Amino acid sequence: MHKTDGNGARIAQERIAREWTAREWKSFTITAALQGFVDGWGVWYDDALVSIERTGRFIAGTWTPEPGEDGPKPGGDGTWTRFVGRIGAVALRAAAPSTRPDRREVLLNFLESWAESPFADPSYRFRTGRLAAGGPFGVRDAQGAAVATYWPVKGERRLLEARTGDDAPGLPGELLYAEDAHRGWGTPEQLRRLVALVRERGPMPWDPAAVVELSDACGISRPAAALTLAGNPGANGYYVPFLAKDERAALGLKAAEAESARSELGRLRDTHRIALLADVLPEDPAELWEPGGLRRVAARTAEAWREQQGVRPRPPEETWQAALALETRMTATDLCHLFLDPARMPLPPGFYLRLWPCPPEYQDLRTVWDVMGFPDADEVVDAVFTGLPWAYADLPAGDPVRDGAPEVVRVMRKVLARKDSPAKVLYSGIIRGSGGSARWDWLTGGACDRMMGRIEAGDLPPGGYEPDPRASAPALVAEVADRLGLTEDAAALYLQLLTLAVPSDRNVRRWNGWAPARHRKAVGELIGRGLVVEDKRARAGRSVFLPGPWAHAAKPLPPMECWKAPLLGAVLSGGDGVQAQAQVTALPPLPGTLPELFAAAWQRLRNGDGPSAEAI
User: Fold this and answer.
1) CA angle 537–541–546, rounded 5-degree value
2) What is the pLDDT of residues 147-177, one digit of tens each?
3) Where are the domains of the chain?
4) 59, 174, 210, 582: least surrounded by Cβ within 10 Å?
5) Counting beta carbons within 10 angstroms of the beta carbon of residue 122, is it exposed (0 to 12), middle (13 to 18) or buried (19 or more)?
6) Are 113 and 52 in contact (CB under 8 A)?
7) Helix ranges (DSSP H) in 96-187
8) Given pLDDT bands bounded at 50, 70 and 90, which one contains residue 362?
């Protein structure tokens, strides 16, 4: 038996590892550069772009297969044929400032090769389609060429056909389907010029105004519009993080914004992304570096988006940012759209109906309401039950998302009460089953009705917030101020500390419209009267608290004073109020309107049941 020493085996293993790592890294760079445009993770090795180039030369007649070969071998998984007539999507990404240098170089090399191939030559007419399995990889004759671009999958192969005359060339198998390829931006001259400009001047300048214009025109979020204009409108989940820090900085995005935008754009298929951006670049690529160049790209992109995806109402930026902070599986944009257009809210991107086999009557579900009661409906249910109290209590009067909340309630009640609902059997397990009855009781109960009634009645002044008792309960604020000898500001802040689950400094200033100095003055007044104590507590976001024991909480639940827990219906575990620490374990939707809760908190004080100074 042949033996090798341990050191020799180790050296051989390290060499293999280095070669494999290099090969895998090239594959990763190619697929990452083209992410969201092509399929086939794991098959785009370093020779994939060479194979695409060789396919072009086979079509042009400048490359002949070696003996024993019957055509060019597949490049990647064959989905690169989507770029025929639509290479503009790749060119936009290559010019974008957010594209990493190594990926940009891959894209520029690809565009250079494409410019020299028949794929950019207007004298060719292309068709794509499917062939039956069996037959050679490619055939070429006087009328052109036809190539199978991948191995058979389920008895079919992808086809690319190139005609140079009026008649079709021979085919390397039985034709199952074919359609003419789009012919858009991307002549050889345009491609060569764009590549030269990027290499000479660097990436195109970024214009935040163009992002806002695209966002407003299409009803998508600002981060989603930024990704789209950067040639990266969402992608698959192979790469974590989706964008690196410097890539996000180039587009002015935070990490959470970028991830939310990718999820928002998840309903786009790869073919949608390519078609959307195929013809948005200017006739002369140099316009990208001129003032207003990207805004004109945004206008063309908006037109293509409206034609392909339609338009949905756009939430205010502040509202979208607030929705981004909510703990729901639905994206911030989809949550807002649920409230802006309740009856027609489409299914979230990536929604997967967990029924197999899926009954035929459930295969054409289109809106979130169609899936109520199915196992996946908990995504929608969570969004509704998180979104309703948020819209009522944390958005200003006149906000379009807040104004849509009553209709969400009506639609949800109607859908779930329908006797002919296809999901009736499963629905009880989502809403009324174990742990769900409290949600159903809240949705159909008086507290929900009264909250929605306040929204519809317009009980707040425009721009006012329900958590600001000066706007929602002015008479009560006056009473508290008079009884305790406080200013109006201090009385309002005291009611907020007594009642609200998260009266953080940031929230209070937003709700009350206070500058920091005005807030500090009210805080100082309460400290001086001994009504609050100063302290530092984890995840509180404030420096003053009611006297008495404190309940900690794990995200997403908020920590709070134990005194207010019964008022809000919060469930506490552990803690004896003196030694052991309590923990917030559940916080149901608001048990009443905020004016009702402000009044209840004040009545407890008047009854002698105020916060205790013990166990601080």
Assistant:
1) 60
2) 999 999 999 999 999 999 889 999 999 999 9
3) 317-457, 469-606
4) 174
5) exposed
6) yes
7) 101-115
8) low
